Amino acid sequence: MPGPIPNSHISGVFVIVFAILTKISFWNNFYQFSDRLIYMKTKAFRTLKSVLYQVGEQAGFLGLVFKNSVKKGFEWNELAHQCYLIGYKSFPIVTLTGFVLGFVLTLQSEPSMKAFGAESLVPGMVAISAIREICPVIVALICAGKISSGIGAELGSMSVTEQIDAMEVSGASPVQYLVVTRISACILMVPLLTSLADAVALLGGYMGTTIAGGMSFPLYFRKAMSSLAFSDLVPAVIKTIFFGFVIGYVGCFKGYHSNRGTESVGRAANSAVVTASVWIIVIDAIAVQITNALYYN
């Protein structure tokens, strides 16, 4: 009869088995990590490809817009109609917004300024704050929600119902008639709407000052105008032109390239609002840095 297996042999077997299992586990983890790495690499490549495709598509559409802007046969009647829809139809909400901005800003800042004995600086503070930053950005965001979504939904519905294709078949230029006119109207109307909001904000500030402490109308506007400089007006007007271009361009792009189907109309309108709002904030941040570097330093 064979004798019992020595303990050293049993220990050696366990060591070998453990080493084999450890090696198998290592290679399994390695393969899983490799698969996960390949998946992440593939996903990143697809995301980069999608982003580059969208950038190229927008660049091509932008070039098409510029090309049709200098093309003969500009649609002046359609431009006037779009200025009426974009500008005149937005007067009530812009007026109300500007008045509330100036009114609330005055009521909120009056107690703090009074604590330092600087009530006389409130008109100038309201004027500078409203004209430099608050009114341009708020009005642009309102226009992004009202105008950009409307353009996206309108052109999206025209794309879904194949009206744009019908214009191309008939020999008309849909970009020149639908896109260029709307972008031009936004570029013209957004600065005018912002100027209206600035003026109404000063009026709202005067009403707030009257409620808080009282100041004569001529004195209020004299203090407000004396605190403003040419360098406060020019950058604000210039950036509203870019705001108008972004609002019109994003709305037209999202609506013009909406997919087939009724759901794409809602997605185009929603995407136009979000994208235009983000671009407005980015452009405002860049404009503030440039303005500070050129004027205020």
What's the helix and strand layout?
Layout: H1 7-69, H2 76-86, H3 91-115, H4 122-160, H5 163-169, H6 174-212, H7 217-226, H8 230-256, H9 263-296
Helix pairs in contact: 1-6, 2-6, 3-4, 3-6, 4-6, 4-7, 4-8, 4-9, 6-8, 8-9
Structure, briefly:
The chain has about 300 residues and is mainly alpha-helical. The protein has helices at about 5-70, 75-85, 90-115, 120-160, 165-170, 175-210, 215-225, 230-255, 265-295.
Primary descriptors:
mainly alpha; 297 residues; globular; 9 helices; disordered N terminus
Low-confidence regions: 1-10
Largest sheet: none
Number of helices: 9
Radius of gyration: 31 Å
The span between the termini is: 101 Å
What's the helical proportion of residues?
Answer: over 70%
In total, the number of domains comes to: 1
Element-level helix/strand string: HHHHHHHHH
Taken from the alpha-carbon principal axes, the silhouette is: globular
Mean pLDDT: 82
In total, how many beta strands?
0
Q: Quote the beta fraction.
A: under 5%
Q: Strand pairing plus helix content: what structural class? A: mainly alpha
